[in-house]
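Here's my example:
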Amino acid sequence: MTITYDPHHPKYLDEADVRDEMTRVYDLCHGCRLCFKFCTSFPTLFEMIDRHDDQDAGRLTPAQQDQVTDECFQCKLCYVNCPYVPGQHEWALDFPRLMLRADAMRHDTGQVTMRDRATTQMMGRTDMIGKVGSRTAPTMNKVLAAKEGGIVRKAIEKTAGISSVRLLPPFARQRFSTWFKRRPKVRMGNRQGRVALFPTCLVEYQAPEIGHDLVKVYERNGIEVSLVDAGCCGAPWLHSGDRDQFIKVAEKNVKVLAAEVRKGNPIVVPQPTCGYILKKDYLDYVPGADAQLVAENTFDAAEYLMKVHRDPETSLDVDFGGEVPATITYHTPCHLRAQNIGLKSRDLMKLTGAKIKLVQQCSGIDGMWGLRAENADLSVPIAKKLGSEITRADGEIVAGDCHLANTAITEQTGLVPSHPIQVIARAYGIAVEDVTP
């Protein structure tokens, strides 16, 4: 048995070794039970072990072990709350990374169905899909907006493996990078910094308005923004067990991002899953000085602004003469909480004078897991719980950093959340850019 979370370790994909390690970790988790509330993986695990009088995790079959893995959607919150994490305890327990190892092992040893592989191939190629979606936005969006559970969506589910009952975010006609390149050059009067924006697939193809507001808010505060010439962060490949594809993407991006940092441009990321990948996962899969440099110089969008606000040598404009809601319901995405940077978006929005109501319920999306057809029965109830908490909070507006989680909120409540950067833009009086999906 090898306790390793290093994807390059010679035993990383060895099935017998992986399953022995799963037995060790499952036994420790069963004895602790601290993480019972985060997802169905843990209640499922505990119930299966409890069936045996001796409560021995070694009695679980490979299929039962895999069921626990399948129900993990990589929210990372159990890792944040675990008392036995590597570096802090001799047991060196990192449940999410073990689940990634198990997924990679099953993918490598051919234990993944052809349907699952096809779905991963479809969801993993986000740049290709985004380019097609943007070019054919009016037609594509009609297809995506077809009745949930209807004939059209069922056909998509059958061919692509994307759930027919989940709301899908529409594509924008104009990509963010196109807008960025065409916009007039802004002269920076009192420049306080420079950043390189890693826009993410969601902002590039589906929510460019977030990018518009981010650039304008940063420029208002004397921060010059350039655009990183990189594609998807690779999260769909990683979370589906395709280690090799993820490493290819990661190596390419790390090279580009490290070059930006060496120019003096920290990396800013407006979506939490992608930010987590750059800060945490690239370190594991592309070890070396470049990945370390990227991790140390990557910031969430609000995190960087709060850094400017708190640094004695810089200052943030806190003259909010625009639209400031009295109350904001703020959904804190799991992958932002897992970064252990604090609630910077909440802190930023509080500067406007608005009262912030926190909702910390997971959306059940977490990358692409919640959009896969086979996970609908587990993911939809999680989203419904989130919807109920959003409704109960009853804020004047809803805000959240994750566009996919925000889509789940819209699906369950009909409300359309704003990104925290958009809340700040409206509070400054910055007008909404005209974007027709």
About this structure: Residues 15-108 form one domain.
